[in-house]
Amino acid sequence: MSETIRRSWLLVPISNTELVAQAAQSGADAIVLDLVELVAEKEKDAARENFQAAIHTVKAGGAGVFAQIDPDFHYVDLHACVWPGLSGVVVSRAESSRQIEEVDALLSRLEHVRGLLPGTVKIVAAVETARGNHAACEIGRASPRVSGLTLGRADLIMDLRPEPSSEIHLMPYLMQRLIIIAGSVGVTPIGAWWRAPDRGLLATPDNTYQAALRGRAIGFKGAMCLRANQIEPLNRAFG
Question: Could you read off the pLDDT of 191-208 as tens digits, one per residue?
Fold first, then answer.
């Protein structure tokens, strides 16, 4: 299991330099520079060109730097983001061990070319679909680089559908299953126990704190967030 416990993971669009600079001073344990969910398709090429500079900006604030990449475009995403200072990558919508193995192989080549120690860049797999959750154990074992597993609530809503109560269909089961799988393969489970009407990443600070406390009680070690005002509640609850 990863020795570094990161309580708060702030997701930031790499295309917004102002938000990246603000994130560096936010107090988050990890900054996830996103190339997948929060960046418009027409802006992605320019965003990739800015990645190396963004790593330096975030590192100056003391947080760990991660990149959220698309497994379907892992070649261009990894070439853009793997530079000294990068702690790891979050593989969005991970669905198979083969995807993780392909990311691992390219990371090894880029580490060699760009002067990083072998195995420096870790992998957090986001299992955000029914297929990904089904394969979570194989995904967690696919590479020694895998240091964490997390769920993606928004994509799970679309894939599994909400129940009439507005709770996510099967979500309590999936959260507990993820924690068991993470423990069995020796990686860190990342998440919190969100409740309706919250959708996790957009929860209020008070609701974030309560969700993090519930998550910690069942075994999560930290959680993703989208707003700076969620960082302190996450740090306090998981601390």
Answer: 998 876 666 567 899 999
Question: Which structural domains are found in the chain, ordered by start?
Answer: 8-238 (3.20.20.60)
H or E element: which one contains 13? strand 8-13
Other CB atoms within 10 A of residue 126 CB: 24
Which helix (H) or strand (E) element contains residue 124?
strand 122-127
For 60, 119, 128, 138, 178, the CA distances from 151, given in Å and listed in that order, are: 29, 24, 6, 15, 8
CB-count exposure of residue 45 (10 Å: 0-12, 13-18, 19+): exposed
What does the buried/exposed string (b/e) look like for 140-170 if buried means 16 or more CB atoms within 10 Å of the residue's CB? bbbbebbbbbbbbbebbeebbeeeeeeebbe
Q: Provide the phi-psi class of 42: left if phi over 0, else alpha when psi is between -120 and 50, else beta.
A: alpha
Per-residue pLDDT reduced to its tens digit, 81-137: 999 999 999 999 999 999 999 999 999 999 999 999 999 999 999 999 889 999 999
SS3 state at 223: strand
Question: H-helix or E-strand containing 34?
Answer: strand 30-34
Q: How far apart are CA 223 and CA 151, in angstroms?
A: 10
